Fold this sequence. Notes:
Helix content: 25-40%
Distance between the termini: 70 Å
Shape: globular
Number of strands: 21
Oligomer: single chain
Largest sheet: 8 strands, mixed
Amino acid sequence: MALTSDVLIAGGGPAGLAAAIALRQRGADVLLVDALQPPIDKACGEGLMPDSLRELAQLGVELTPRQGAPFRGIRFCDERSTVSADFPLCGGFSSGGIGIRRLALHTLLVNRAREAGVRLRWGTTIILKPGQPALLAHEPVSYRYLIGADGLSSRVRSWAGLERGALLTKRFGFRIHYRIAPWSPYVEIHWGQRGQAYVTPVAPNEICITVMSRFPGSVRSDEVIHSIPALREKLMHAEITTHERGALTTTRRLHRVVRGNIALIGDASGSADAITGEGLAMSFRQAMLLADSIAGGSLAQYAAGHAEILRLPQAMARIMLFMDRWHGVRRKALSVLDHDPLLFEKMLRVHVGEEPLRRFLIQDAPRLGRRILLSHA
Length: 377
């Protein structure tokens, strides 16, 4: 007898689990499958910004500082300049971010999905062959909708014929943890000649460092860290607590994310470079849009609204990767922001969705551009 469900989700990472929870909140019968066993790890920066926390709360997962480590904003650093900005007030109160280990976040999402009534099949492979229906470990399965939440190399995307699109950027990332008390109340992004290293507090005595580089195969986390004097000095005697884990980080835009009764979500549906820190926030927004769309009886709403969710993070990725490639422009930009931190605060407001990008481009970007051109940094 075939397994049946309203919605079959392929992929049990945060995007798939968020979609499953959101759909259950609207009454759908959801079956989620993944070939791995939880908790599932992935190389990532492990910082959740205020927008991510708001969306998680809507899914019934409310994080507290005791579950990780709070941070109040973002700091950019290079060899000449340092500029910081706190997250904006939301609804009259400060809304900071939280650094949390990926394994801990995944466990919270799995528990919330189980509590919501999602049927979870771990250690189960979806068999997808051209022109044939999907099978679960050789069992037939029927569903109204199939959701591909299976990551950058999505098999569902390929099987559904949704591969057309553009790979705009591709970089290489590595993550490692150090046992050391966080020295800053910010997530710090350190810019160097070989890439960026961003530092996220994840516990009172532990930090996560994620390194990203556009140089394939020749740059690892220790090389980038050692090339940045501020990090090299702080971490010289710190204990490494985890093995280095690597992953690709891309900016990808697809022509379509829906075909018939199949939809893509998370990295399977397009992505923005990890330096934006918005990967999880995008997935959570997509999950709620997808649930609304299916509750309305079709995938049309999701197909129409998906691109808007990626637009701002991908625009921010373009700006920051331009700064990565052109060191002189980056040095001038950080120098200008160091002398005019209000501009950086406005950029952060745009980044977390508290101010429209269009307003910043009209009112503030021309001033920033002029000052960069005139800067002698």
